[in-house]
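Milestone M4 deliverable, item 7.
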Amino acid sequence: MVVSRRTASSAARGRRWTREELLLAMHLYWRIPFGRQDQRDPEVAALARTLGRTPSSVAMKLNNFTSLDPEERERGIRGLEGASALDRSVWTEFSSEWERTSAESELLWKDRVEEAPRRASPHAEDGLRDPTPYAGETEGVGVRTIRLAQDYFRRAVRAAYEQRCCVTGIAVGDFLVASHILPWATHPDERANPANGLCLSRLHDAAFDKALVTFDEDRRLVVGKRLREHFPTAAVRSHFEPYAGERMKTPVRFAPGERFLAFHREKLFEG
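Output delivered:
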């Protein structure tokens, strides 16, 4: 994205970004690729309306985050210099505390971006809607945090694979699952890390979860012996045999962690 000096100076004279605003911007940053960090993008414009900022200001902030992103630097994308100390602080929070920070970001997104327009609608239910999602007294803070973090994880993983199964290319939303590479129950520190996720169809998610399939060092699908024993059944064979040895779809961000895939392949898979 090209940002003129005039636009940049106008944004600089505006009000400072708050931490909550940056958490919302990060929420969007993780879900759209570099090519969409533009003031003309509908999601950028929608967030700008929510924040009371210009689309160019939001686009610039996304580009500031790009300058802090090591994955983008590896691709030769530098982003826009000028990230503030608070930008760096929020970036570090996300990178080191995925569950807590993504849950906070998800709650803000649900409340301010998704729920607020409905509450403001003249057709809203006379203000009876709870303005704070997941704020029920019966739900513990820890459970609420986990649930919000998982909502965020699903959004980020599915967006990274452009709403398609990384094995089959299936793009029917109701069939897609954000699957954990390292098991959710045994690796709590990586539960909300989108690099620990793959977008899979429900069938392939079940096979991966049960370690009936895995991926080799080149990210090619490996079908295990236990599943191959069912290949005489055409319905099973047709969903797995054509994809055996094929590389998974490359995500637009959050490339699956090599150590995560290696753990699944070496510790869980029964080849």
